[in-house]
């Protein structure tokens, strides 16, 4: 690898920062650089209203977050943190369908074989830990996950696709289909096995027909899916923490 581990140079952190900047309220203010000569803007330190608004909003949020995390923060302000979390969507789990009153529906046959209940409350997508998960019928990309079997983080994560999201004991749970392993010919190895710092692996394009129950806390990350032949796909883990580092932390 010419540039070291992939986690050292991929662009996901920059994309996350762009998303943070895009969500800052700017009150539809435009940059003053649109109204001045390009050369003057290039050689001056003048900042437009748009840039100043984004900078001040970011700094105010960072200072408030730091203050709420301090042990000497007043109790009255700490109580406001709950209101801020509800107002700005920082809850640990958020159901995007909460604005509508959901009702239980008849359980699909394949899901009934897993949970053995006649009625179930199905969801299209949820947000947990600021990450959005969707069923495959709603959004294919958000349905692809890597999870630790039975929640055992000492086991390597396996890829799967979320077919159903349902409520069980007041908590959202996934019903997933695992990605089937690829049967390699004799003397053939996974071409990505020799790149330990690139978390990709080949699998069969087929999904298991058996549903498996997965808690949201068992999920490590999303994954990317790329079809390279009629019966083979490459699956890339999109975790922000390398697998080697996570195992070292557990040890």
Automatic annotation (TrEMBL):
Highest taxon listed in the record's lineage: Eukaryota
Protein name: Uncharacterized protein
